[in-house]
Amino acid sequence: MKVLAIVVSYNGMQWYDRCFSSLQASTLPIDVFVVDNASSDNSAAFIKTNFPMIHLIESPVNLGFGHANNKGMRYALDNGYDYVFLLNQDAWLVQTNTIEQLIKGHTNHPKYGIISPMHLYGSGEKVSKGMIMDLVSHNHSTYDLLSDLYFNRVLNEIYLVDYVCAAAWLIPCSVLKTVGGFDPIFFHYGEDDNYMQRLVYHGFSIGICPKVSICHDMEFRGGDYGKENNNWKKSMMVEFADVNKPLIINKIKLKYISKAMQQVLFLRLSHAITNYKVALFIQKNYKSIANSYNKNRTKASNWI
User: Fold this and answer.
1) Is residue 33 predicted with pLDDT exceeding 50?
2) Residues 60-85: what's their mean pLDDT?
3) What's the mean pLDDT when you consider all of the chain?
4) Is the pLDDT of residue 214 over 50?
């Protein structure tokens, strides 16, 4: 199997040794493709010096997570790869056979379009809170996994889930030809939600292989990760662009305008302003959302 690991780097010097070394140690030989998003900490120079085998693209501007990954996906399709493995720069493989086991899971269960290992914290001692919250809040099909873990049963090779963070995704290249890459209307955050919506629309499933894992050092990421990840604009874009639902953006816009007018009548001006801002946001993004919605319903390597 030809496998291309894709990593988007951005000022992540503290993680590169663990991330790239774990990929090098894979029991299944893989190639590594890195897109550096205009880092200011000499990331590109460090990678060139310490990991010369990596195929490195240096972007003069920050492309965002999705667009940068799309470049790696395009490279994979152009060069006959069977799978891409998306890995965050702040993550690394725990078991050397992780990618091998993920591919085995897909080989035995080809309906899966995304397969991920378990996500641990950077210490490797606890399951990531983000993964647990995702399993509980996003997923309605994880009862078997949680029950088997609780009762210490023999774990299945793969479990069906509704959502898994894009920190470590194995995607068959055949899926890229049907679903495409990440939608550019999402610069950073929301692109993974949107991709999984499209994956399901085109008849694929999302799975977790619980016998292998990554460490995802997100607890030390810092910054405004939580704030950005829960941004209301991102959430609305994800909802409106969901190809599994009817496209009713105009109805929603009119609803917010109506709410704003009602709140003006009751002198709730701050609430009225908030709802008016939402309506303006919907109006501004209507065309791009509608274009993405219609394009993402077609089977093609869109956006790559």
Assistant:
1) yes
2) 97
3) 91
4) yes
Q: What is the pLDDT of residues 266-288, one digit of tens each?
A: 778 888 888 888 888 888 888 99
| Cα dihedral across residues 130, 227, 182, 242: positive or negative | positive
Instruction: Point out which residues pair with 169 in neighbouring strands.
Output: 86
What was the pLDDT predicted at 87? Answer: 98
